[in-house]
Amino acid sequence: MKAKSASALNDFRKKYDRYYSIGDLTPTLCELFGIPEPAACGAVAVAPIVDQAARTMGEGKMEKVVLFCCDAMGEHQREHFPEVFERIEKVAPFRIPSVAVMPSVTPVCYGTIFSGAAPCVHGIQKYEKPVLEVETLFDVLAASGKNVAIVSVNTCSIDMIFRKRNIDYYSFRTDEQSFDCTLELIQKNSYDLIVSYMTEYDSLQHKTGCFSPECTRQAYLAADRFEILAEKMDEYYKAYNRALVFVPDHGGHLIRENKGTHGFDIPEDMLVSHYYRLEEKVER
Fold first, then answer.
1. For position 262, which CATH number holds?
2. CA gap 40, 99 in Å, rounded
3. Fewer Cβ atoms within 10 Å of its own Cβ: the N or the C terminal residue of the chain?
4. Between vectors from CA 108 to CA 181 and to CA 221, what angle results, nearest 5°?
5. Residue 284: inside a domain, yes or no?
6. What's the domain range around 186?
7. Contact partners, residue 70, CB within 8 Å, separation at least 6
8. DSSP per residue over the chain, as a string?
9. Lowest model confidence (mean pLDDT) among 26-40, 46-60, 205-219
10. Over 90: is that where the pLDDT of 215 sits?
């Protein structure tokens, strides 16, 4: 399965001339935590991030990670909202240009992001929300004694496809409620990894278009929330080696003035960047 995943992910990299895939997040975090990769992982650890962690943290391993999963904030969005992404990159200066997988829809892409496996291996190959049966980042973290929380909106892809794991799930009606919960969990300091999902930009782009006033507000709100996460992590996690990562799944494009979509094998949908912030603990 690893070889099949590796080959399929490499095909996407080659087609879009990208060195990294969205699936490379999982082996990167496994390397930082010092734990085994999921069984079907064919992705590769992001060398600049692993090298920077070694320089920053020395022999110490990663202890706290928050993943801000902002749906549909790809490179096409970066071109239209440069101020937003400048703020994101100021917080998390290690930008890793990456390529998504096909079809470029949320359950397929986040299935790859959190397993390191290609869609043909992890099993979600269209817009559907079955529980993934392959081993994921969350499984190997739990098996290594790490505490994991997924915070999201009710019945969204991330809320559904990673169920039946030895982790905690927090599901809410709105992004605002899920973000508030994320901040509370950071303050309580009970988890080693928190996934915080933001869905509203993607939801609105389908209704109003990718660059509508409503979507523009959500894009700026994503930057606001990312900055807040960095501040809260520095406040409550300062005694830990830590990482904050901006983790979109795919992009999106206009099909007419007031409608956006994604799922196509085109640069607007397939090209994204992940942004990493690595901080060394402050000894007490």
1. 3.40.720.10
2. 19
3. C
4. 35
5. no
6. 2-279
7. 198, 201, 222, 226, 246, 247, 248
8. -HHHHHHHHHHHHHHTT-SEEGGGHHHHHHHHHT-PPPTT------HHHHHHHHHHHTTPPP-EEEEEEETT--HHHHHH-HHHHHHHHHHS-EEEEEE--SS-SHHHHHHHHTT---HHHHS--SS--PPP-S--HHHHHHHTT--EEEEEETTSHHHHHT-SSSSEEEEESSHHHHHHHHHHHHHHT--SEEEEEE-HHHHHHHHH-TTSHHHHHHHHHHHHHHHHHHHHHHHHSTTS-EEEEE------EEEETTEEE--SSSHHHHEEEEEEEEEPPPP-
9. 46-60
10. yes
What are 154-211's pLDDT values in tens digits? 999 999 999 999 999 999 999 999 999 999 999 999 999 999 999 999 999 999 999 9
Q: Is residue 27 part of a domain?
A: yes
User: Model pTM?
Assistant: 0.97
How many domains, the chain?
Answer: 1
The pLDDT of residue 284 is above 70? no
Tell me the pLDDT tens digit for each residue of 103-112. Answer: 999 999 999 9
Backbone angles phi, psi at 29, to 5 degrees: -65, -35
The string of pLDDT tens digits covering residues 93-102 is 999 999 999 9
How buried is 87 (Cβ within 10 angstroms: 0-12 exposed, 13-18 middle, 19+ buried)?
A: middle
What whole-number distance in Å separates Cα of residue 105 and Cα of residue 261?
9
**Rounded to whole angstroms, how far apart are CA atoms 211 and 218?**
10
